[in-house]
Amino acid sequence: MNNAISRRRFLEQLGLAVAVAQAPGWARGADAPPAKQLGVALVGLGNYSTRQLGPALRETKFCRLAGVVTGSREKGEQWARDYGFSPKSIYSYDTIARMADDPAIDIAYVVTPNGLHAEHAIAVAKAGKHVIMEKPMCNTVAECDAVLAACKAAKVRHSIGYRLFWDPYHAELRRLAREQEFGAFKQMKGDRGFVMSTWRWRADKKLAGGGPLMDLGIYLIQGACMAKNGAAPAFVTARELPKTRPDISRDTEETLQWTMEWPDGASAEFTTSYQQNFDHFRAEAPKGWIDFKEHAFGYKVGAVETSRGPLQYPAPNQQALQMDDFAQCVETGRATPVPGEMGRRDLAIIEAIYRAAASGRREAVKTT
Ligand code: NAD
């Protein structure tokens, strides 16, 4: 079976048909006036901003890089030259409040270590700017609640950098879950990990909130919740495996295995690790299955098969589509598919998994 899909179908799958209809440039051809571009400030200029988000902001249609928040003025000036924004829109972590007077910036994207997300997102909201936060939203549900309250008080929009909502394979997973062509997904399996050879903040309890569960396991949680139409599991169990590099994973887990159970009898078994390279996800339903065999949660998802045959979709720039979609949400008032509440849901699941690993018991997930 030929699974190549048309551009229209592809965009529909990504939920972008609305965006296309509202996009004069895309809909009416090259001579159409350019779309209004909102200004985005990146908060934190580490790896993800440098390698993914900055370059993606050169491809976006509805937003562009307009400022940065950085600990290094020199680095900020280099970014201003490279991306062509005013040096007036360079901020330090202590001067985020001054963004309030900067008309060039509409949205600020928090890309700092997890343990700083809440502090930085609240500062952005208080400055009256819309917020995108990298995953995981925060270290704890309590921090998520503080961010949501700050956004509500400041009347700004929020979203999480769940880029896979703009990947066509993950869109197909959600479509299968929604339309139930194979029936409801009942069994899921997966793993995600990489080998950390030297200590990094990602293994630090205070800065990362935990180990690979916070950084990588969250993708498996996302995949499973997509397969269950957004529903959180009711119960979890978990166990931490013995550490092979206690010099790296000092106060956080190195490898964690956990299960998730839904009220309809569906279950999932997952592993995440900082000492193994893997990245798979499989969901089975009574009448069919989908199997992400390689790079299940990567920037370019690869080798996805279903019980009907292999899937072959174009590989979009997930981050560019994600940021354009949020800019459109801000402009039109439309709801984002990846709101802060989803980030909070995932932290509630993560907290239950850590409780289960500590207690050795089956723990209830408390999402409210
Ligand atoms: P990184 O270490 O490369 O960058 C972190 C940035 O935060 C640096 O610029 C650093 O200077 C700054 N920072 C500010 N205060 C700091 C402090 N007290 N300690 C350490 N750094 C401090 O990390 P990264 O890979 O860019 O990750 C940043 C965030 O993005 C994380 O939340 C991570 O989970 C997320 N991320 C998401 C994806 C994705 O695919 N969605 C991919 C990579 C990272």
Structure description:
By secondary structure, this protein is an alpha/beta fold. 35% of the residues lie in helices and 22% in strands. It has a nine-stranded mixed sheet with strand order 14-13-12-11-7-10-9-8-15. Strands 3-2-1-4-5-6 form a six-stranded parallel sheet, sandwiched between helices. The longest helix has 20 residues, at 340-359. The protein is globular. Mean pLDDT is 93; it is low at 1-9 and 15-30. Residues 44-49, 71, 111-114, 116, 134-135, 161, 163, 201, 207, 215 line the site of nicotinamide-adenine-dinucleotide (NAD). Nicotinamide-adenine-dinucleotide is lined by residues 44-49, 71, 111-114, 116, 134-135, 161, 163, 201, 207, 215.
Strand-and-helix sequence, N→C? HHHEHEHEEHEHEHEHHEEEEEEEHHE
Class by SSE composition: alpha/beta
| Strand order, sheet with most strands | 14-13-12-11-7-10-9-8-15
C-alpha Rg (nearest Å) = 20 Å
* Mean pLDDT over all positions: 93
Question: What general form does the structure show?
Answer: globular
